[in-house]
Automatic annotation (TrEMBL):
Keywords recorded for this protein, A-Z: Membrane, Symport, Transmembrane, Transmembrane helix, Transport
Organism annotation: Muribacter muris
Top-rank lineage group of the source organism: Bacteria
UniProt topology in membrane: Multi-pass membrane protein
InterPro entries: Na/ntran_symport, SNS_sf, YocR/YhdH-like
Family statement drawn from the similarity comment of this UniProt entry: Belongs to the sodium:neurotransmitter symporter (SNF) (TC 2.A.22) family.
Gene Ontology molecular function: symporter activity
Protein name as annotated: Transporter
């Protein structure tokens, strides 16, 4: 990074920013959620709609958050303050920033636990507790998941704590020496691991059937309801409403082309999500494993596949290592949303803000999420476990409402200032602004109603 003012830094290059945003938006969204949703919702039909949704709502909303974040270059709360068009902005708009923070807390509450699950799998593969040297059955992988994940709270808490500690070490070094430097290493590593897994999968016997399922849409499965559902998943896929893009954009140089960076970001996210499918579906079809097993696809179905492969345990470790890297690049940036806000709102030192953020989320979020599978499994909220409640409230309510408020904020509060900040050509700016002002809110309302 380079110093832009005495109080704010900017990314050292467009590539660094794009890699950081790509890391923020990949995570479990691309490597875990996207593949199982594809498997549940008709393969190629879901992929086709996902690509379409990126154009309909993805790129326009990335620009919304870019504009809000870079405008006055402050944290995700104060980004909704200041002045616009010669008038003071009502402080009530800052509630959108607080909603984003609450949503970030909610997602990290269970997201870090997923990281603990993955580390547990790696540890079990290396130690031989999960032996894949010979073919295993769905009963075997289900029993392992139940015994070592759901009913092993001490181990999961330890692995989750290790994952949190890895985040702490990087975050403590700051934006430049921590996040930026780690992303320069982690993202290329992610790409290398991804390529290794794709090559292994597409060269398996019968892999073409999986590729056909994945890429060729069955248009009879494309419905209005599915498209609305896919639109909602784009929010998770691009970290919209988290405050992540607002925070990262606050460190973006004023001379940077927002349209170009937003387009590249969405394309990279889509390509990596698509690539994740290539490292999963060919192998599922090659070994006759059903692709529609839902959230357990990665944790219960894929180990069966690896057990049929040559050097399956090695490829399983590579695969789960890839998941850890993807999760780390995302968790770092979500944590940073809360840390930056806490620093700038309270004047705490960075290390104090990090300790409070990571420690607070671990105690109030991670521990309850782990215990919700076992010790506290009888505790439910509206029929959902604590783990599922964090996921539902953050992903289906807070993020969508924050994104809705952000679009309205740009269209009805920032107005001409948003157009100026975008810095694009007059025709594109006019089309984008009116689309964000009048169309995007309607789309988000429909998505929100559908998600309840």
């Amino acid at each position: 990074m380079t110093t832009q003012t005495t109080t704010r830094q900017s990314w050292s290059s467009r590539l660094t920013y794009i890699l950081t945003v790509a890391g923020a938006t990949i995570g479990f969204g691309a490597t875990w959620r996207f593949p199982y949703l594809v498997g549940e919702n008709g393969g190629g039909a879901y992929v086709f709609l996902f690509c379409l949704a990126m154009i309909v709502i993805g790129i326009p909303m990335i620009l919304v958050e870019n504009v809000i974040g870079r405008r006055i270059q402050k944290n995700s709360i104060d980004a909704f303050g200041g002045t616009a068009n010669g008038k003071n902005i009502h402080s009530g708009w800052k509630i959108l920033g607080y909603m984003g923070l609450l949503g970030s807390f909610g997602i990290l509450a269970y997201y870090m636990v997923l990281g603990g699950w993955v580390l547990n799998y790696i540890g079990s593969l290396v130690s031989g507790q999960l032996a894949l040297s010979a073919p295993v059955t769905v009963e075997t992988t289900a029993a392992f998941f139940e015994q070592h994940i759901h009913n092993n709270p001490i181990a999961i808490l330890i692995y989750t704590a290790i994952f949190v500690l890895a985040n702490y070490i990087i975050l403590a070094k700051g934006i430049m020496d921590g996040i930026e430097r780690s992303v320069k290493f982690l993202m290329p590593l992610l790409f290398v691991l991804l390529i290794i897994m794709i090559i292994r999968n597409i060269t398996l016997p019968g892999a073409m059937e999986g590729i056909k399922f994945y890429l060729i849409p069955d248009f009879s499965k494309i419905t209005k309801e599915l498209f609305i559902f896919v639109l909602g998943q784009v929010f998770f896929a691009l970290s919209l409403g988290f405050g992540v893009l607002i925070t990262l954009s606050s460190y973006l140089n004023k001379n940077e082309n927002l349209v170009k960076t937003a387009t590249i970001t969405s394309v990279i996210n889509t390509l990596i999500a698509l690539a994740a499918g290539f490292m999963i579906f060919p192998s599922l079809f090659s070994f006759n494993v059903e692709p529609n097993s839902g959230p357990t696809l990665v944790f219960q179905s894929l180990p069966i596949v690896f057990s049929h492969m040559w050097a399956g345990s090695v490829f399983a470790v590579i695969f789960f290592g890839l998941l850890v890297v993807a999760a780390l690049t995302t968790s770092l940036t979500i944590y940073e949303v809360i840390i930056t806000a806490l620093q700038e709102k309270t004047k705490l030192s960075r290390k104090a803000a990090i300790a409070i953020t990571l420690g607070g989320i671990f105690v109030l979020g991670n521990i309850p999420s782990v215990l919700s599978d076992n010790v506290w499994k009888e505790i439910t909220i509206a029929g959902r476990s604590i783990f599922d409640t964090f996921d539902y409230v953050s992903g289906n309510i807070l993020f969508i409402l924050t994104a809705l408020g952000s679009a309205i904020f740009v269209g009805f509060v920032l107005k001409d200032e948003a157009k100026k900040e975008l810095g694009a050509g007059e025709t594109f700016t006019t089309v984008w602004f009116n689309y964000v002002k009048y169309v995007i809110p309607l789309i988000i309302v429909v998505v929100f109603i559908n998600s309840l």
